[in-house]
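@channel sequence for tomorrow's demo:
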Amino acid sequence: MNTREYETKFKILEKTLEEQQKQIKKLQDIQELQELHSNYAYLLLARDWEKIVDLFTDDAVAILHRRGRFQGKEAIIDIFQKVVKNNSKGKGRDSHVAVQPIIHVDGDKATAQWLMFVISVDSKGENENIIQHGRHEMEYTRINGKWKIKYMLFTSPWPREIWSNPTLEQLAQWEKEDKHPYENRNNFPDSF
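structure tokens (generated this afternoon):
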């Protein structure tokens, strides 16, 4: 091989290495996003609201099925502390399982869809065991090297049923109008 052939091969190897490094970074990002979402589900089970809110950006938006739209860490922690903490209260414990993620990473931004199962079990047998399914539609952003939740929409059931309220159109309208239709409601349903 002459010098020119070596230079050509070297350039090909450099390009291949660069592409592989990009692929490895993307896989690392996907793994970090899976860990972030798993931590979210675990912290729901542990009811550790202070740590949950740290998973969100300062201006995050969370739309929780039948609960409404909440923007900013203060509003998000408020809904967890005042409402979500009472889910299954006195009826046993619930667990949250996030499965089958579809994650797309684009630099410091990412989107994902997760199937979610909320399993409420009464170990005493006094209440009916419930399995609720839904879907998380997520947007993430990387801040100072760490992934955070920027947007979360929880829809249940998923796929949507005709009887399930609010509709996706209502959720989109709330987003446009920056409304919290349930913010003054004290008697929320047990499931979200």
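heads up for whoever presents: Strands lie at 56-64, 68-71, 93-106, 109-121, 130-143, 146-155.
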